[in-house]
Write a structure and sequence with these properties.
alpha+beta, 6-stranded antiparallel beta sheet, Immunoglobulin-like, 4 domains, 652 residues, 33 strands
Length: 652
């Protein structure tokens, strides 16, 4: 009993101390002076991003993306990288970057951006800032450091140090949390540095917030608890942190582009910042009253408000056709001025109780803000309650109160449209509709990997598993997830019936022959750890180190002496099992491998005529070698396969 009482404090002590040591390393990390490591990261990263995917070429999106990308790089990203933008032909709504100047925009994001140069600038400046600030290099070096510390504590524990076990548990837990925090801070840094850079290049800094709000509507918001364990911060937090440099970016933009209309990105976008709505059941006026705290920037005209309603995650049918969309679902519309931050007062909306049926009095609602046909912001989901209307339904008109609005400028409350994420010129639905009519069928999609993106006829439909309604007929269904081959199939939907499909996603595999050639710009790499990093969850480094948590074969261990005696051969290499062979993570300063020209981050793929893919295979062909014997080592560096001769020494 007395021992159990001390476990909690001791465990917390090790957690805190280990986290502090990990974070101190992150803050004091010294990056290599040359960029060889960055260029190697770029080559490895490209093979993983493009595996199974083709490039989008020769389109209007290529022209727009290249124009914006070149302006951004010319404005001040002066690292000696072979900067390149690649559009990836898949349906994923994402953008990513590797070290070494390589930026990728995936097909789903390309569709969202359309031809809006300001939105392109917000995406590309963020990704370019990641690689220019060498974030990927920092993350990889931190991961290598963490693995070395874990190996160190394991060795101490194996030698009988009881405290080392607690240190191992504490460090393994805390280092993961600290790494996520580092990556979240890098996202904020890329937002801020990207905003400053795009302002210099002629793109209004408000496009950063416009992009945030668009993606928030597209992907949803994380919980605060979930964000603590995520490598990306919440959208709300990103807005707050980006606002810290907004004044400087805005001043720089107007200094260089006093006439915004003549800037490469054109006039500033209308952006709206929406707080948490408050709702009140108003029995006196037979309405549900909604108060929405919000303000806008760059708004010269009234904006439209669209409120949608749901019950049990399904849209609610309108009791009054004046408040229904084309599908008969309850949708409330009105218009109001959206004032600047220092002028604003809450927008008040009054939704008549007659708009809903008696059994739909308590609902969930979401408010959307639209400017000139484009959705620019949305609220969080909130509860709404309608009073009971006695007797006949009251035919009330919708009312809104805010700053001065010209009554003639108001839209008819009987509009029949539903909100859709509409970056010019594409449209993505913000919700799906359950089967409500005999003229519709239901499609239920599951996948072997939960969370995969689902697209039907090139339109996003959420993430697997999910169900939604479709018009009868044949439809193209695509299920996509980074690191897996896209699953595509034609399916037939019948009215009133449910069609079930299951996508078996196969992991992408890349052979040596598919590895891209090295870039022409290749400064000599220095002797530091190297790997790859991609923003998507399929980063090779993340995959390999996630695997190393559960597979003993992938711990960084010495090669050719993991179980060696003094008579065994020794080449002075420490590595982990990678996609193609043994990734070198460390080299003995006087070891045979270093003398033979091998470098950290090289991948050993063979010894003489024997292929090696694991540490055990490497040991099997190397340990029996007599000291002084020579062996031919085949390896990959910068995407190119090479050979060298290593003279085996006696185990040290």
């Amino acid at each position: 009993m007395c021992h159990s009482r001390s476990w909690g404090p001791r465990f917390l002590l090790f957690i805190v101390s280990s986290m502090l040591s990990s974070m101190v390393f992150s803050q004091n990390l010294t990056l290599p002076a040359d960029y060889g490591i960055d260029l190697q990261l770029a080559e490895v990263g490209r093979s993983h991003i493009m595996a199974g995917n083709a490039e989008i070429t020769g389109t209007a999106a290529n022209e727009t993306g290249d124009e914006v990308f070149h302006r951004l790089i010319s404005a001040g990203f002066d690292q000696p990288f072979p900067w390149k933008l690649t559009l990836v032909n898949n349906g994923v709504v994402n953008a990513s970057s590797t070290a070494g100047g390589k930026v990728y925009v995936h097909g789903g994001m390309v569709s969202l951006l359309g031809q809006n140069k300001g939105m392109w600038a917000a995406v590309l400046s963020h990704e370019a800032a990641h690689t220019a600030r060498r974030h990927q290099v920092r993350v990889y070096l931190q991961e290598v450091f963490n693995q070395r510390m874990i190996a160190y504590y394991r060795a101490r524990a194996a030698a009988g140090d009881k405290n080392a076990t607690w240190s191992l548990i504490g460090f393994a837990t805390a280092s993961k949390v600290a790494l996520k925090k580092l990556e979240r801070e890098q996202e904020h840094d890329a937002d801020q540095q990207g905003m400053l850079q795009m302002a210099k290049a002629g793109y209004h800094p408000d496009y950063v917030f416009a992009l945030h709000h668009l993606l928030l509507m597209r992907t949803g918001e994380q919980s605060r608890f979930g964000a603590f364990f995520s490598d990306h911060p919440r959208w709300e937090t990103r807005d707050q942190r980006s606002d810290r440099v907004y004044s400087d970016a805005l001043a720089e933009f107007y200094r260089l582009w006093p006439d915004p209309a003549a800037s490469p990105g054109g006039l500033a976008p209308v952006v709206a910042f929406v707080g948490q709505p408050e709702e009140k059941e108003n029995k006196a006026t037979h309405s549900a009253d909604i108060s929405i705290p919000m303000y806008c920037r760059n708004s010269t005209k009234p904006v439209d408000f669209i409120v949608t309603f749901a019950k049990d995650n399904h849209p609610v049918k309108a009791a009054d056709p004046k408040f229904s969309d084309k599908d008969g679902n309850l949708t409330f519309h009105d218009r109001a001025d959206c004032l600047e931050k220092n002028e604003t007062i809450p927008v008040l909306l009054h939704v008549p109780a007659s708009a809903v049926s008696a059994h739909d009095r308590s609902l969930k609602a979401t408010a959307y803000v639209e400017s000139e046909g484009n959705l620019i912001a949305s609220s969080k989901v909130f509860d709404i309650h309608f009073p009971v209307v006695m007797g006949a339904h009251l035919a009330q008109e919708a009312r809104v109160h805010t700053g001065p609005v010209d009554p003639a400028s108001r839209t008819d409350t009987a509009q029949t449209k539903s909100p859709s994420v509409t970056p010019q010129p594409s449209t993505v639905s913000t919700h799906t509709t359950p089967a409500t009519s005999e003229n519709e069928g239901t499609l239920s999609v599951t996948a072997s990997k939960a969370g995969a993106d689902i697209f039907v006829d090139s339109t996003g439909r959420g993430n697997a598993p999910t169900s939604f309604t479709l018009k009868p007929g044949r439809h193209s269904v695509q299920v996509a997830l980074d690191g897996y081959k896209d699953w595509v199939q034609e399916i037939s939907v019948e009215a009133g019936e449910t069609t079930n499909v299951t996508a078996n996603l196969l992991p992408v595999t890349t052979t040596l022959a598919e590895t891209p050639a090295a870039t022409t710009l290749s400064p000599k790499p220095n002797d530091r750890a190297v790997g790859s990093y991609i923003e998507s969850p399929t980063s090779p480094v993340r995959q390999e180190y996630a695997s190393s948590q559960t597979k003993n074969e992938n711990k960084p261990v010495p090669v050719a002496n993991s179980s060696a005696s003094d008579s065994d051969g020794w080449i002075g290499v420490t590595g982990i099992t990678g996609a193609y062979g043994i990734i070198i993570t460390d080299l003995a300063s006087d070891g045979p491998a270093r003398v033979a020209g091998l470098k950290i981050a090289d991948t050993i793929i063979g010894v003489d005529d024997t292929s090696v893919k694991t540490i055990q295979m490497m040991d099997a062909v190397t340990n029996p070698r007599a000291p002084g014997s020579k062996m031919k080592s085949s390896y990959i560096r910068n995407g190119i396969a090479s050979e060298t001769t290593v003279t085996v020494q006696r185990h040290h």
